[in-house]
Amino acid sequence: MATIKVVCGIIFNEDKVFLCRRSPHKSLAGYWEFPGGKIESGEKEEDSLSRELFEELGMSVEIKEHFKTVVHNYDLFTIELIAYICQFQKASYKLTDHDQYEWVSKNNLNQWNLAPADIPIAEALSKC
Ligand SMILES: Nc1nc2c([nH]c(=O)n2[C@H]2C[C@H](O)[C@@H](COP(=O)(O)OP(=O)(O)OP(=O)(O)O)O2)c(=O)[nH]1
């Protein structure tokens, strides 16, 4: 089964974490996720994350450190989801791939309909 490498940001602003909901026209539509996207060939993970956040949300962040990598098997593909802790800087919130966003408490992440690959990340976050 094909494996795709996706980088995502756990973006903090004070004690809140950013989540956004995938638009109806996207794969995994309606699920909430940590924003990011597929790593293009030859691209560094951090560069890919900065690019995706700017393209999808008009957002700038400071990338702090790698947090967790999850390998998850969906029906049609396998994902390697690489999560980085980030500090929010600014955003236009001009959404291109999402139809909603929220700043949420990291201890309430289990109340959101997260993409299945994101659940182990949310669980690890609630414990730290
Ligand atoms: N960005 C992101 N994608 C995730 C997460 N969890 C998860 O299962 N995915 C899945 C959804 C998609 O199938 C895939 C990422 O695709 P994408 O559509 O966001 O990436 P992209 O913008 O580079 O892709 P494309 O639509 O331009 O082809 O990974 C997550 O937390 N963030």
Topology:
Elements: E1 3-13, E2 16-22, E3 32-33, E4 36-38, H1 45-57, E5 59-73, E6 78-91, E7 98-105, H2 119-126
Parallel strand pairs: 1-6
Antiparallel strand pairs: 1-2, 1-4, 2-3, 2-7, 5-6
The structure holds 8-OXO-2'-deoxyguanosine-5'-triphosphate.
8-OXO-2'-deoxyguanosine-5'-triphosphate is lined by residues 6, 8, 26-28, 33-38, 79, 81, 97, 115, 117-118.
Characterise the protein shown here.
Residues 2-127 form the Nudix hydrolase domain. Belongs to the Nudix hydrolase family. Keywords: DNA damage, DNA repair, DNA replication, Hydrolase, Magnesium, Metal-binding, Mutator protein. It catalyses: 8-oxo-dGTP + H2O = 8-oxo-dGMP + diphosphate + H(+); 8-oxo-GTP + H2O = 8-oxo-GMP + diphosphate + H(+). The protein has 128 residues and is of the alpha+beta class. The protein is built from 2 helices and 7 strands; from the N terminus they run ββββαβββα. Strands 1, 2, 3, 4, 5, 6 and 7 form a 7-stranded mixed β-sheet that branches. The radius of gyration is 13 Å and the shape is globular. It binds 8-OXO-2'-deoxyguanosine-5'-triphosphate (8DG). 8-OXO-2'-deoxyguanosine-5'-triphosphate is lined by residues 6, 8, 26-28, 33-38, 79, 81, 97, 115, 117-118. Residues 6, 8, 26-28, 33-38, 79, 81, 97, 115, 117-118 line the site of 8-OXO-2'-deoxyguanosine-5'-triphosphate (8DG).
